[in-house]
Design goal:
alpha/beta
Length: 377
Amino acid sequence: MTERRGGSRAVWSEVDLDAVRANVAALCRHVAPSEVLAVVKANGYGHGAAPVARAALDAGAAWLGVARVEEGVQLRGHGIDAPILLLSEPPVSAAEAVVTHSITPVAYTEPGIDALAKAVAAYGGRHPLSVHLKVDTGMHRVGCDPDQALALVERIASSAELTLAGVCTHLAVADDPTDPYTAGQLARFAEVLDALRVRGIDPGIVHAANSAAAIACPDARLDLVRVGIAVYGVQPSASFAPVVPLRPALSLHARVMMVRELAAGERLSYGLRYELPRASRIATVSAGYADGVPRNLGLVGGEVVVGGRRRPVAGVVTMDQLMVDVADVEVDVGDEVVLIGSQGDAEVTATDWAERLGTIAYEIVTGIGARVPRTYT
């Protein structure tokens, strides 16, 4: 007897590490000779940070990127010794962990730089800590103002405990190649780099591109690109699909818990906001918003795949279950439902859900709950 997919699990996710490798290899070819940093923050965008990190490194990534110090510490705990860039300046209290776990931080404030220097003096070895200066050229999230960059670089240079190893910025609208704002950001960034070089300062590794810019903006590739969502096979914009073919790495699955016949006019789930236009069959499925299925998915026309066909989610998604209008699809208790992914010729993607909900696929995949086990293939 063949073991059924997912075993006895009510809900599970499958992560195709070969897809991750294929995506990273394609991105490496596309941006060469620039190097690739694979962003594995937020538990690898919901895919699992350590397995994705290893797959990305196998496929040619030179760096890994994280958002929190503890994410870098966890990678080190899994025996990963590749360069790790911390994409935001660490809190003063976390400077020790940055030093002791050989994480490369970005910095952009005087207190942050001073805290790193003190941590190296107290806990470091014989070598200075490499630091990347982050410059805000227009995203206005984190980073120093361009006119502060020189003073902060000089502060780094004046510390025996630190060395400037890179300078970076972040692009706000690279997913829209027609927007001139990206060119303006790159021009401001170039002015900062020129000012440093005029002073005889080597900026080290220079980087600006996220996934969108890495794919669609050659001028932004520089020495290194920081690719996040593209690693996982999700296009930053639908218009990019012909440029670099990517394979979605994640699928989300659950099982049918109950099937019942309901008459036309019956209303379903909390708030009774879904009314059956005709007599139909309703399947209750063992996944809910605690597992990462958005609560309003059924109210905006979201679908899943049952019996090899796309069928609508019926009504509000509850914490642990959702309902599907299966109509004339043959469905039994225990059958597999593909929430994200393909079954037969039918497919539903994270981007499909995101477009219905007025958000982005990043939010969908990172929202898959911690109680959903990941299976790696």
